[in-house]
Design a protein that fits this description.
By secondary structure, the protein is of the alpha/beta class. The protein has three domains: 232 residues, Serine Threonine Protein Phosphatase 5, Tetratricopeptide repeat (Alpha Horseshoe), CATH 1.25.40; 137 residues, Nucleotidyltransferase, domain 5; 185 residues, Rossmann fold (3-Layer(aba) Sandwich), CATH 3.40.50. 51% of the residues lie in helices and 9% in strands. The chain contains 25 helices and 13 strands. A five-stranded mixed sheet has the order 3-2-1-4-5, with helices on both faces. Strands 7-6-8-12-13 form a five-stranded parallel sheet, with helices on both faces. Strands 9-10-11 form a three-stranded antiparallel sheet. The radius of gyration is 28 Å and the shape is globular.
């Protein structure tokens, strides 16, 4: 408290030295108001502190002209103070005034994006607490600002660190969707979920990394937009208001500063509008509408499983029908986290044990609480058995094997016996995978096998031999030839790829360092893959540990090797959620390719991969050879 009292005295002294109307005075007033608000919050015994804080914040805003970079910050401070008064007095007008100020602050285009984002996150938290009617708008604004804030970070690793360390709620997108579900608007729920998940991949695919796709269409416009973004951020985060030798700024100089910022902001908005007029860029820097997202369900049902802190639900998209809600009242984030840890322990190959009972228990729970209610609705909708369905899990559910769920009782069907499951990270990713109509025909593919047999993977050679026997269209890179450059070069010239080697997770602070282990301890990293351009890629089979296992810090971003393979061009990817048993590789790959190449003349269609994997795993279970593989 002594430090706080000293701060209040210092702010009072600074205020006494500031001439009336000086911009320093507005900053000092705001700082004094914040200090008094803090003293009130800590003691709760001095209501006058709160009234004085509100008064000082109002005066600071009066002295701070519209367009000033600190305007959002001052609005946020006032909103917080008035919200505290509502908690004291329960005056509804204070509550509405507070949320009105939050909305104003988050729409201050000339203020720092980070100031706007902090205000928006605070708005969300308070609107959620009081179930305020502005809640859905608060979430939508927050996701929009979060999307824009990534412009400030030059590369994908710094963007990931921003998402992980910027005090952004991990379940922001899911909580946003739950708010829209509570409001009875399933279309908006789908839009918000899409807008807030896999942001990093979306930015790299679209306008970031850095503006790659736009560069290919209009390099001049891409360069202009990047330059404007950098200037705007530098302006917002720097001390843009320069004082003269007397410590003041005249109205002419101030207006010149604000005018410069307004011009930059208007130029940036005009550039964005130009981008949106280009073919394929209509959704640039804005949420994708439901009418577009619904296209993901054109070839079969897509099931979004939304796990939030407030409720859990499944939303089924099917054809052109309206979305269907399936409530999941028995599903909680904490339980799913516990199941993930249980599953990791049960599958830990270092223990030399396979806790099949524990795995079966988890699969039954997933079936009872999530999958079975969804399957019942699919049956009511007339979706025939053996159809293909696409799961889009969120939050902690991304680490659990929904596709393997079932009652696991005699004479009862498990999910693999009913439907053929696939996973997607987002609806947009599925739409993009189908976007090129030249793909999907039965042709003889060029298949590249990358293998690295070693003492800990003695069965890899058998797996390589099995695949090589498919025909002359198979090329193998193994041993010393399996180095970083040769593998990347090989991927450029093959439409199919099969990796049989060690897979490694990146640590939570560096998930983009996940990798395939190649010859002599060299690695092909996730970052290497996302920099590759593979326009002819179709199918990747990743017979490697952890290839579809993401990090726990940013789970909804799906940062793993399988996602990287899909990003760099592969339309269909087979991956593993955990450590893979070396004995399973040769068996499952043999059964997988047996179905893929069932047609004469070695012709195959990569779109059969989900069915082939389903048949392969079911065959392994029937033969008793499966060792916990899901």
């Amino acid at each position: 408290m002594e430090d706080l009292e000293d701060a209040i005295l210092s702010h009072c002294e600074a205020l006494s030295l500031c001439p009336l109307g000086n911009l320093y005075r507005s900053s000092s007033l705001s700082s004094l108001g914040t200090a008094l608000h803090t003293r009130y919050a800590q003691s709760g015994r001095m209501p006058q502190d709160l009234e004085d804080a509100i008064s000082f914040h109002y005066e600071a805003l009066t002295l701070c002209p519209l367009g000033h970079p600190h305007h959002c910050l001052f609005l946020h401070n006032l909103a917080r103070a008035i919200f505290s008064r509502y908690n004291q007095s329960s005056m509804v007008e204070d509550l509405d005034k507070s949320f009105s100020l939050y909305e104003q602050g988050t729409n201050e285009l000339t203020s720092s994006l980070q100031h706007q984002l902090v205000a928006a996150i605070d708005w969300v938290a308070k609107a959620q607490l009081y179930h305020h009617r502005s809640l859905v708008k608060a979430y939508s604004t927050t996701l929009h600002l979060l999307d824009h804030c990534l412009i400030l970070h030059p590369d994908v690793e710094s963007q990931q660190k921003f998402l992980a360390a910027a005090h952004i709620p991990r379940s922001l997108a899911s909580n946003a969707a739950s708010a829209a579900i509570n409001a009875g608007d399933l279309k908006v729920a789908v839009e918000l979920l899409e807008q807030g998940r896999a942001i990093l991949w979306s930015k790299m695919e679209g306008y970031r990394h850095p503006l790659d796709r736009l560069c290919q269409v209009d390099k001049q416009l891409a360069d202009l937009l990047q330059n404007l973004s950098m200037k705007l951020e530098h302006f917002s985060l720097s001390r843009s208001v320069q004082l003269d030798t007397a410590g003041t700024m005249g109205p002419v100089a101030l207006e010149a500063q604000l005018h410069q910022h307004r011009i930059l902001s208007e130029d940036w908005e005009r550039a964005v509008k130009k981008v949106r007029k280009l073919d394929g860029f209509s959704d640039f820097l804005q949420a994708i509408p439901f009418s577009t997202l619904q296209m993901a369900a054109a070839e079969g049902p897509v099931i979004l499983i939304n796990i939030s802190n407030y409720r859990s639900d499944a939303i089924i998209l099917y054809g052109n029908s309206l979305p269907i809600l399936v409530t999941l009242p028995q599903v909680y984030c904490a339980d799913l986290t516990h199941f993930s840890k249980q599953l990791a322990l049960a599958r830990d190959t270092r223990t030399g044990m396979n806790h099949s009972k524990s795995i079966s228990s988890i699969l039954r729970t997933l079936w009872n609480n999530i999958v079975s209610p969804v399957i019942d609705h699919l049956a009511e909708m007339g979706v025939p058995e053996k159809s293909r369905i696409w799961w889009c899990p969120t939050s902690e559910l991304c680490a659990l094997p929904l596709h393997a769920a079932g009652p696991y009782q005699r004479l009862q069907k498990n999910l693999p016996d009913i439907y053929i499951s696939s996973y997607i990270s987002t609806l947009s990713a599925l739409i993009r995978a189908r976007s090129n109509t030249t793909f999907g025909q039965s042709v003889v593919p060029k298949l590249l096998v990358v293998g690295q047999p070693c003492e800990t993977l003695p069965n890899v050679q058998n797996e390589i031999d099995n695949v090589q026997q498919l025909g002359a269209f198979v090329d193998v890179i193994v041993g010393a030839e399996a180095n970083h450059d040769k593998v990347l070069h090989g991927l450029q010239h093959h439409s199919w790829a099969h990796f049989a080697c060690h897979g490694h997770l990146g640590d939570n602070s560096q998930p983009f360092h996940a990798s395939f282990e190649l010859y002599g301890g060299s690695y092909l990293t996730l970052l290497d893959l996302i920099q590759a351009r593979l326009p002819n890629a179709e199918l990747a089979f990743l017979s490697a540990c952890h290839s579809a296992e993401g990090d726990f810090i940013t789970p909804d971003e799906n940062i793993h090797l399988a996602a990287a393979m899909q990003f760099c061009g592969f339309r269909s990817v087979v991956g593993t959620l955990w450590a893979m048993d070396d004995q399973d590789g040769p068996i499952i790959s043999k059964e997988f390719y047996k179905h893929m190449f069932r047609k004469p003349g070695n012709k195959a269609d990569f779109r059969d991969s989900a069915e082939a994997l389903n048949l392969a795993t079911r065959t392994m279970r029937k033969s008793g050879e499966e060792r916990g593989l899901c």
